[in-house]
Write a structure and sequence with these properties.
The complex is a heterodimer.
Chain A: H1 11-20, E1 22-23, H2 26-53, H3 75-91, H4 95-112, H5 119-133, H6 142-148, E2 153-154, H7 156-175, H8 179-182, H9 185-190, H10 206-226, H11 233-250, H12 254-267
Chain B: H1 2-5, H2 10-33, E1 54-58, E2 64-66, H3 82-94, E3 98-103, E4 106-111
Antiparallel strand pairs in B: 1-2, 1-3, 3-4
The chains are: A mainly alpha, B alpha+beta.
């Protein structure tokens, strides 16, 4: 007997209904502004590694032997192009074009040499791509001021953005369930030891480091799921902000982790809006 | 069949395919990378291990000399494939009998030809 659309629709019908759903573009627009700004700072930060790669005597490790590398281009040109694209993306100027170009540039940096890889650069690249796909220039943008705004955008790229954030928290938590991390030795070796924010020597005990490591895994697991729950979302965001702020303050090196914290703060708003647009 | 395709447009079909493929990649890549040594790139293995490798050159008489690799690399990361990275390069530059790399708890001897 053929199943009909209605109370129990076919999986394909449910998928069609899902991809046809729309939402307000407001929260992804907020995320676009923040992610674009972080992208500009991240490109400047990667400039040091790009410059180092262009020094004679430094080994190149391409993913594919003989593949062209972005490190062959003048570093200044990469930085100027990258920061310009990131600023335009953040402002929502020709968002589809600047977002796509920024995604390609970040992807080129990420994939041109194994030494240019960084987890936060990988995440940033994926987020720029998904925000571009989501039509994040539809609101709070120069495009919208030029009459190219929209009241509603498709929901499915927003769900992919949420899935990406959750997947990152989930898999980093699972990967940390090993003796080296849970013993506290990873945390111990990365804690800040100098300056006014250094953790006092007496606090860096085996028990404290192990407890903090277990807590980090639990928090990341909670974030992977609680961000989806309307009832627990505010708590999850508060916990996430506290965790990333603590990491940025107490773990070295600082700049990369501050940018990672800012990136996460920028994308939390994509979890906020469940309402359907017109 | 008509029941399956009812209501679909080229736009909704493209969106459904793109969404499904992206979701599979978002979850599938880090899931696949859970099985194997860590940390690995693209697996979200941040701070799972802080162990970085150690490298020696081996003279023809078998004696080992520790190598400071920092002047030779752009970054020192735990997920970098050290034997692949440093073995051939050190063979070319210092011409030892072999390069010995300790990485992810394993020592690997790379003979230089």
């Amino acid at each position: 007997m053929a199943r009909q659309e209605g109370a129990h629709p076919l999986p394909l019908t449910r998928l069609r209904r899902f991809v046809e759903r729309t939402a307000s573009p407001r929260y992804i627009a907020v995320a676009r502004i923040g992610v674009g700004l972080v992208a500009a700072a991240r490109i400047l930060e990667r400039g040091a590694t790009l410059a180092r790669l262009s020094e004679p005597g430094v080994i190149r490790v391409p993913y594919l032997e003989g593949a062209p590398s972005i490190a062959d281009l003048p570093v200044l040109a990469i930085l100027v192009a990258g920061v310009g694209l990131a600023a335009a993306f953040s402002a929502g100027l020709f968002t589809w074009v600047t977002g796509s170009a920024l995604f390609l540039l970040l992807g080129s940096i990420l994939l041109s040499d194994q030494q240019l890889y960084a987890n936060n650069l990988y995440l940033l690249t994926l987020l720029v791509g998904l925000l571009t796909l989501a039509g994040s220039g539809a609101a709070l943008s120069l495009d919208a001021r030029r009459g190219r705004g929209r009241q509603a955008v498709p929901v499915w790229p927003i769900v992919l953005l949420r899935l990406q954030i959750s997947a990152m928290y989930l898999f980093t938590a699972i990967a940390k369930v090993n003796l080296e991390f849970l013993s506290g030795s990873s945390l111990f070796s990365t804690l800040r030891r100098e300056g006014p924010l250094a953790i006092p020597e007496g606090w860096r005990t085996f028990d404290a480091m192990a407890a903090a490591s277990v807590l980090a895994v639990i928090v990341e697991l909670l974030l992977a799921f609680w961000l989806w729950s309307p009832r627990r979302r505010a708590t999850a965001i508060a916990i996430g902000v506290a965790m990333h702020a603590a990491i940025a303050v107490w773990i070295a090196p600082t700049l990369g982790l501050v940018l990672f914290a800012l990136l996460m703060f920028a994308v939390y708003p994509v979890f906020l809006d469940d309402r359907r647009g017109p | 069949m008509a029941n399956l395709t009812a209501g679909w447009t080229l736009r909704s079909a493209t969106a459904a395919l793109t969404c499904t493929a992206a979701a599979i990649l978002i979850l599938g890549i880090p899931f696949a990378l859970l099985w194997g040594p860590r940390p690995r790139r693209f697996g979200w293995h941040m701070y799972t291990s802080v162990t970085v490798g150690r490298v020696w050159t081996e003279a023809p008489d078998g004696s080992l000399t520790a190598v400071d690799v920092r002047p030779m690399v752009a970054t020192v990361r735990g997920d970098t494939d050290w034997p692949r990275l440093l073995g051939p390069a050190l063979c070319r530059r210092r011409q030892p009998a072999a390069v010995v790399v300790e990485w992810r708890g394993r020592k690997e001897r790379i003979p230089c030809r």
